[in-house]
Amino acid sequence: MTPSAPADARYTQTAIALHWLLALLIVGAWGFGFYMVDLPFSPARLKQYNWHKWAGITILTLSAMRLLWRLAHRPPALHGDTPDWQVKASHLTHGLLYVLFFALPLAGWAYSSAAGFQVVYFGVLPLPDWVPRDKDLADLLKLVHRTLAYTLAAVVALHVAAALKHQWIAGDDLLRRMNPFAR
After folding, report:
1. How many CB atoms lie under 10 A from the CB of residue 150?
2. What is the domain count for the chain?
3. DSSP H or E stretch at residue 163
4. Domain presence at residue 106
5. pLDDT of 174 higher than 70
6. Which DSSP helix (H) or strand (E) runs through 126?
7. At 93, which CATH number?
């Protein structure tokens, strides 16, 4: 069992804002990425790939901010009657989410570099290619990026399912901790 959390234990407003902003960006980038891969080669497709890359770099940057914030501001404790295995599962899931928040956009950036398409953030700031141009490496990194994207989708689904289970089945009002509109 975990130590009891106060009834009003909530994340900070900054943590809540970063959580929901990243959630929207990640869901949007995932959906957009899923949509754009089957488009025929065209200037419109290239533009959409750039938007996807910009979203990925923004997610990477916001993830770094979120991680730094989390390291400086401990999250509220879980309810005292939360079983140990759920506490461990929560920590494991959150840790995996953070790893994926970094690994997925970095793999995409590496893929773009290996494919010979430099990332130019918002069409203004050229980012360095950090792997050499190499078709075989690009093919591998494309698979890695896709696999990480599906893995992130699965872990996010697990995270959402656990939050809803706590809210509606366990009835412990867990969602209030991350609700931007709750007081």
Report:
1. 11
2. 1
3. helix 135-164
4. yes
5. yes
6. strand 125-126
7. 1.20.950
